[in-house]
Design a protein that fits this description.
It contains 9 helices and 10 strands. By secondary structure, it is α+β, with helices and mostly antiparallel strands. Among the domains are: 74-198, TolB, C-terminal domain (Neuraminidase, 6 Propeller), CATH 2.120.10; 253-330, no CATH class. Strands 1-2-3-4 form a 4-stranded antiparallel β-sheet, with no helix packed on it. It has a 4-stranded antiparallel β-sheet with strand order 5-6-7-8, with no helix packed on it. Strands 9-10 form a two-stranded antiparallel ribbon. A hairpin with a 4-residue loop joins strand 2 and strand 3. Helix 7 (259-269) packs across helix 8 (274-294). The longest helix has 26 residues, at 222-247.
Amino acid sequence: MGLRSAAAAVRFGVALGIAAMLSAPRPAVLRAQAPQSADAAFLLGAYDRYRAMAEASPTRGVRWQHLGPTNVSGRATAVAVAGSGKSRRIYAAFATSGVWASDDQGVSWRAIFEHYPSTSVGDIAVAPSRPDILWVGTGEANIRNDVIPGAGVYLSTDAGKTWRRMGLAHVGQIGRIVVDPHDPDHVVVAALGLLLVRTRIGLYVRAVTQDRDTAEAMGINIRKIDLLIFSLGTGLAGVAGVVLAMLEPVTPSVGQAYIVPAFLVVILGGLGSLIGTTIASIMVGLISAMTQIVWTVSLSQVFLLLFVVAFIQFRPRGVISVRSRALEET
C-alpha cells in the first residue's frame, strides 16, 4: 500500500505540474532589435544628444583619466607637417581616435579633434601657403569589415584650436584631401561614400570585402565585383593624375621608378596586410640591392620578377594573408 500510494502521489504531482505549465500565460515573443542606421544624420544627432547630456551631467567638472587598454588609437590613416624648423608641428590622424598634434618632434602628443560627431579620420591636409589652416576629412577610407562612417569635412584656421564643418556630411568615407598650394580656399576632396553606402553596387562591394564566401553563397558574382573594384580604382588613379597635373609639373617619368616595385610588394606581401607589405618591401629592397652588385639593373629586375613569380606559386596569398580578403582556392 505504501508503494502504490507513493506512485499515485508522484503521478498526481506530475499532472499538477503539467496543468500549471499549460495554464500559465505565454511569454511575449522576443524579436530582434532593428539595427540603427549609422549614417551622417544619426551621427550628428547622436553628437547633439551627447553634448546635451554632458552639459547636464553632475560629473561634468570631473576630469577623467584613461587607464587602459593602451592600444586605443588603432590605425594611423594620415600624417601632415606644418611649418619648419623649431616651429614645426606634426599632425597624425587615426581611424578611431581623431587627430593629434605634436610640437616637440613627436615626443608628446595632444588630441585636437576628439569632441566631434565622428572621430574616424580618412585624411588631413595642411595648406602650404598658410600652415595654420588644417583640413580634416572624416570617415576612414580603407576597405575593411569595421569601417566607421564620417560626418563630413572640417576646417580649422587656427592650427586646430577651433573647427567648423564645411559640408559633405553624407559621403561616408573621405580618402584624400589636396589643398591648392597658392590658395587655401581651393580644396579637392576624394570620397566614395555615396557610392558605397547609398547604392546596391556599394552593398555588393561591402559584402564581398567583408566575407567573400558568404557573399558568393548569397548569389553575388564576386569575380564581377572584383573586376568592378579594379576598374573603379584604375579610373580614380587616372583622375588623380589629372588633378596632380593641375597642381605641379608632371613628366612622362613620374612614378616610373617605383610603380613596378610597389606592385610587386603588394602581390608579395599579401592583400590588405600592412605587416606583410612591410616584410615584402624589405625583401624586394634587399634582393634588388644585392643582385645589382653583380648584375646590371635590367638583369636584377628580371631576377626579382622571377623570384616573385616563384614565391607566389608556393604562397599564393602572399607573406601574410588577411582573412577578409583571402584569395579563392583554385
